[in-house]
Amino acid sequence: MPGMSPTRPDSIPLVLASASPRRVDLLRQIGIVPSAVDPADIDESPRRQELPPAHARRLADAKAEVVRARHPGAFVLAADTVVACGRRILPKATDARTARDCLTLLSGRRHRVLGAVTLFGPDGRRVRRLVTTVVIVKRLSASEIDAYLASGEWEGKAGGYAIQGRAAAFVPTIIGSYSNVVGLPLHETAALLRGLGFAWDERG
C-alpha cells in the first residue's frame, strides 16, 4: 500500500501507521486516502497489570513514534483497538480455540471497545484521543459460535469477532461510536486531523 496517492497533491503527506486494511477503508469513507501505509510492527503484548485504557494509549503512541521517525515532516496517524471485558484485555484471535474462548466470555454480556488515536503533525505536535464504545452481545448458542468459527472472520480480530461481518447479528446494542468498534473512531479522528491543519476534500 505504500504507493497510495495523497488526498491532495499539494498537501503534506499523511502516513497511516497501521497494517489494518479496515482503517484504510474507514478513512476512505470520509474522503481521506493516506499517502502511505507504514505499519510500525511493535510488540503489542500487554504489560503486567496494565489496564485496557493505558494499554491502548501506549500502543497508539508507540506506533506513532516509530513511524514518525521514518517520515519526518509528515502527518502520522496511529491507532490501537482494545476489546476489554472488565479489567481483562482480550487477545487478537490467532486460532479457533482463542476465538471460542473470547466469544464464550462475551456471550450475554456487555464489554468495552477502546480506541486510542495518536496523531503527529509535521511540526512535531502530538494530539491524542481515547474513545470508548460499549457493546452488548446476546447470549450465544454453541451452534452459533461453531458457525461463526467456521466462517473464519475471527482471524486476527481483537476479542475474536468482527462487527462489520456476521457478528453483527450477535449485537443488539452499541452505545457510542460504531466505527470505533470496526477499528477507528472517525468523528474523533477527523477532529484531530482538522485541529492540526490537515486538509482534505470533505465533499466526497
TrEMBL record:
The record marks R22, T81, Q164 as: Important for substrate specificity. Keywords: Cytoplasm, Hydrolase, Nucleotide metabolism. Its EC number is 3.6.1.9. It is found in: Cytoplasm. Its main location: cytoplasm. One of its GO terms (biological process) is nucleotide metabolic process. It catalyses: UTP + H2O = UMP + diphosphate + H(+); dTTP + H2O = dTMP + diphosphate + H(+). This is dTTP/UTP pyrophosphatase. Belongs to the Maf family. YhdE subfamily. SUPFAM superfamilies: ITPase-like. Nucleoside triphosphate pyrophosphatase that hydrolyzes dTTP and UTP. May have a dual role in cell division arrest and in preventing the incorporation of modified nucleotides into cellular nucleic acids. GO terms for molecular function: dTTP diphosphatase activity; UTP diphosphatase activity. GO terms for cellular component: cytoplasm. PANTHER family: BIFUNCTIONAL DTTP/UTP PYROPHOSPHATASE/METHYLTRANSFERASE PROTEIN-RELATED, BIFUNCTIONAL DTTP_UTP PYROPHOSPHATASE_METHYLTRANSFERASE PROTEIN-RELATED. It comes from Hypericibacter adhaerens. The lineage of its organism: Bacteria, Pseudomonadati, Pseudomonadota, Alphaproteobacteria, Rhodospirillales. The active site is at D80. Pfam families: Maf.
